[in-house]
Every structure is written in C-alpha cells, then in structure tokens.
Design goal:
heterodimer, A: 205 residues, D-Maltodextrin-Binding Protein, domain 2, five-stranded mixed sheet, 8 helices, elongated, B: alpha+beta, BirA Bifunctional Protein, domain 2, 30% helix
Chain lengths: 205, 256
C-alpha cells in the first residue's frame, strides 16, 4: 500500500486531477463528502486530504510515503524529504509587493508582513537588509495599506488582488509550483512503486 | 543476548556492543567534558549547530558533547574503537536540547580499502542487528566525487538538491550532465561491495565540509528517518572512517 498526502483546497483539486489523469482515481474525492481518507483497492494506493502546510509533516514523519506540496511550503519548512518531481500544477511566484510608489528607506528596519517568515528572513538576509517580520495568516494586502508593514512577501498568481488594493510587485523571489515529495525511508523500500507513480505523473503532466 | 529488564534501546545498544567487540574494536569511554573551544572551529562537522555549555569550577567554558567522533580523534591513538554514549543536541524542529543515545564505531588513522570496506559491512550488520527482522537499506555515495562535480559558486544550493534527490532542481542550477546522471542513475559500488541491501544513492552526501570519501546512511523499513550515518572523514589532519547508530530513531518503528 502506498500512502499519499494531498493538500486540501485549490491546489489539491489540481493535483487530484493530475493523479486522475495518470490513472490514480479515488471515488468521491471531488467534493460532496467530508471523508478525509480515500482508497483505490485495485491499485493498492490510499490518499488522505490534509492542510497544505501539513503535507511535508505527514511525509517527513512517514505517515504518508509520498505527497504533493507547494514549493512555497517546502521552502518555508525545509522538510528532510525527497523532492522527486515538479508537477507543474498551481504555478505562481513568491514575490515582494508594496503600495504603488513605495521607496525603501534604507536607514530604517524594513517591516515585512508575511505568511512565510523563513522565506522572508532568508531572502533579506541574502541582501544584508535588516527586517522586522510581522506574521499574518491571510489578507496580507491590507498590511501595507494600513501602514502595519512596509512590504509583504506573498504568493502572487495573477496579481489581481494586488492591483485592486493599489499594490505592485517590487521583486521576485522564486517560481512556485506543486512538487511530488517522498519520505526518504519509504523511497528505499517502496522505491519501485514510487518511481512507477513518478513515470505516470510525468507522462500526464 | 536479550535481557528482558533492559529497554529496547538498551538491548539494541548491547547487541551492537557485542557485534563491535567481536570484530576486534576496542571500547572507548568518554570520561571528561570537552572545552567549548574544541567544537567552536568544527561546527560544520556537527549535526546540530547548538552546543550545550556550562562554566566549570575553574571558570572555563565547557561543552556537553554534541558528537563522539571528534573526541575519539582527540583522545585515542589511531585504531579501531566503538562507543556507547549520550550526546546533547537540539533535534530538527525542536526548541530545546535532548539527550540522545548513540552507539557507533571509529576506525582512525590511514586506512586501506579493506579497512573502509570492513566499516561499511559492519554498518550493514549493525542495521540488521537492530532491525527486528525488518528490511534494511544502506545508501552509499562518494563525497569526494560529488565535491569534484559541484561548482564552488553553487555549492550549497546544489547540495540541498542532492540531499533531496531533486533532479529537476539540479538541472535548473546548471549542473553538469555527469552530475545529473550520477544523481539520477547512480553507479556501481566502491570497494567491491556487492550486496542487494547496499545501493549507490547520491543523497547520502549532505555535507562536503569534512567528508572526503565514501559517505553512507542506513534505513530500516518502517522507521521514517535514517537510523545510521557515517563516512570517511579528514578533520584537521586526522583521518578515519566511522558511523553512529541513532538509537532514539529506533523508537520510530511504526506498526503498519
């Protein structure tokens, strides 16, 4: 049995569709149920739906053999797992954004609102810029508008939310997409089956 | 020998000590604390960067050992040693120090290929001794070869990709075809090793700071983390090959 952790939500829907295209279908996974575990007896695979941020935890600690996680979450958590494949689903960018016309005052500490404190710290440490991280859990666009922060570090897909709130991207940190990850130990003992899943996903993506 | 009153961790340690002793390794016992300065310059070698310190009665800053290898090299003449010690580290994602039981061997000095091969086969036998009959796997790679193939300016990024078997990441970073194919397909085993439980896997290379030759990591089916780690090192002119078995990781044995 191969255990797969899928992220709940929009990225999860895309990843489920990709697995479906590769032949790994799970009855009832497309809504209409509150079940969290789905089994495909014929293929001997089981999947479960968890919060996107938790996928690497399930995989790193071996509760799941493989999983699909956004590169943003892998960068933030640095789990000790294998990153086997770029699934090319859910493409977006990790960016720094600020109110239109923003000028960085280098004599002050930069206040950065973000859901990704480690990514923000790493990025600005690389620039040698001192920052004050303001951890938030969503609606980040509000922070610079209200003067809570100078900039935000966040995921940008189309940029519509930024534009509608008078914000703009000022620098690009990394390209983001969903990745297939695997528990290192599981890869040693179930490697043949995991590589078969990789091959089928590669053909489907 | 299995002693019912001992915990599974203590029984595992006992089984390993019997194994190492029967292979002609001498018991090495740590009796003193090390001075903090001893570790300060060698932090890259340590698995965790944090060191637990205290001030001794003479005012010197001392350290509770985060590692045994460095002490063996410092205190014992070249030879074959095994140990059963506690080390003090901050595990990944933890916010405080933990006492971790470690059992392992060090063969120090100038070693022949046969000597290194003996340590590798002892690593495999260690895995079998504590696996409780489960499948085991020993990943082997060559840190010297990896160092030659990784360009200096992208070293940390490429090492992170190698540890994660991230082939697409290596390609994006501009890794050579030779490095990509080594990561993707591996190659034959060194030292004439030939055993289905030993495989070449480049992800065994996690640091190039002190490891100069073969490096290896051991896994037991059902345990999510590596339970054994070691390699051929060269630290401040002292060379050798050794490994440690993380007895605490064995608690992770899952019942599927």
């Amino acid at each position: 049995m191969i255990n797969i952790a899928f992220p709940k939500g929009r990225l999860g829907d895309k990843v489920c569709a990709l697995f479906g295209k590769a032949g790994f279908t799970f009855d009832g996974i497309n809504g209409g149920t509150r079940r969290l575990v789905f089994v495909n007896e014929e293929l001997d695979v089981r999947c479960f739906l968890v919060k996107p941020f938790d996928v690497p935890v399930y995989v790193e600690r071996g509760a799941a053999d493989i999983g699909a996680a956004g590169k943003d979450i892998l960068m933030e958590r640095s789990p000790d797992v294998y990153e086997l494949l770029d699934l090319k689903a859910g493409k977006c960018s990790m960016c720094v954004a600020a109110v239109n016309g923003f000028r960085d005052d280098m004599s002050r500490i930069l206040r950065v609102a973000t859901e990704f404190p480690n990514i923000a710290r790493g990025y600005y440490a690389g620039l040698g810029r001192g920052i004050d991280v303001i951890p938030l859990r969503g609606s980040l666009e509000l922070a610079p508008v209200l003067g809570l922060s100078d900039v935000i570090v966040d995921i940008v897909e189309t940029g519509t939310t930024l534009r509608e709130n008078n914000l703009a991207v000022i620098s690009h940190i990394a390209d983001i997409s969903a990745r297939l990850i695997a528990n290192k130990s599981a890869y040693k003992f179930k490697g043949g089956r995991i590589r078969e899943i990789m091959r089928r996903l590669e053909q489907a993506s | 020998m299995y002693i019912p009153v001992l915990t599974s961790e203590e029984n595992s340690a006992l089984a390993l000590r019997e194994l190492y002793s029967s292979c002609g390794f001498k018991f090495f016992r740590m009796t003193r604390f090390e001075e903090y300065d001893f570790y300060a310059g060698k932090k890259d070698f340590l698995a965790s960067q944090s060191i637990l310190t205290f001030t001794d009665i003479n005012g010197r800053l001392m350290a509770l050992r985060p590692d045994v290898t460095l002490s063996v090299i410092k205190h014992a003449p070249p030879g074959k040693y095994y140990y059963d010690e506690k080390v003090y580290r901050v595990p990944k994602d933890a916010s405080s120090f933990r006492e971790i039981a470690q059992c392992g061997v060090e063969h120090t000095g100038v070693l022949s290929g046969d000597d290194v091969r003996e340590v590798l086969s002892l690593a495999l036998r260690s895995l079998r001794a504590v696996s409780g009959g489960r499948n085991v796997a020993l990943d082997v790679a060559d840190a010297g070869e990896a160092a030659r193939l990784i360009p200096q300016e992208r070293r940390n990024e490429m090492l992170a990709c190698i540890a994660a078997r991230n082939i697409h990441g290596l390609r994006e970073l501009g890794a050579s075809d030779e490095l990509v194919s080594l990561a993707e397909e591996g190659r034959g085993l060194p030292f004439g090793l030939d055993d289905p439980e030993i495989r070449y896997d480049i992800s065994a290379v996690t640091s190039l700071a002190y490891y100069s030759g073969v490096v290896f990591k051991g896994y037991i089916e059902g345990v999510p983390d590596a339970v054994l780690s070691g390699g051929q090192y060269d630290i401040a002119g002292a060379s050798g090959t050794g490994f440690a078995v993380y007895l605490d990781a064995l608690e992770g044995l899952r019942n599927d």
